[in-house]
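@channel sequence for tomorrow's demo:
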Amino acid sequence: MKYLIAGLGNIGDEYANTRHNVGFQVVDAFARLSGISFLTGRYASTCKVKVKNHQLLLIKPSTYMNLSGKAIRYWLEKENIPVENMLVVVDDIALPPGQIRIKLKGGDGGHNGLYSIIETLQTQEFARLRFGIGKDFPKGYQSDYVLGPWTPEESEMLAPRMLEAVDAIKSFVMDGPELAMTNYNK
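structure tokens (generated this afternoon):
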């Protein structure tokens, strides 16, 4: 069975260690733990990982966050993967830093990457792994916060939380969405 795991983020060194790029960071951790590297492809960097009898295509869209839907649609169609076998890894200010939640559908919550996916695929019925980045910013400074780098304290907590997110992705694929939600939405 094939799955698309899409980590959302922005390409470029200026975004590399920012909160908004946590989707990229999670799929990078997955690839690193699997001993593989991303290759540049059309609309995204990609790599394939096998987990038991499941084929996972990990992607990092190169279309920038606001056009993530274009890359996702292309790879879903190219690899003939149904939307129900897709998991989008995305940053979420509504969750404390490092907390993860799997959600099977929903709106964009003001997130431009999710908005692009919903508009492009014409559905809100797709799974997402929300990775908390917190909301420790003054009113009017949300953009600076999400596009800002992780603090040293946040960076320390990231490594174990990334491992948990990778385990949650594996659970989503191997155990199914409901069991993954039961195990990781604490």
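heads up for whoever presents: The chain has a mean pLDDT of 95.
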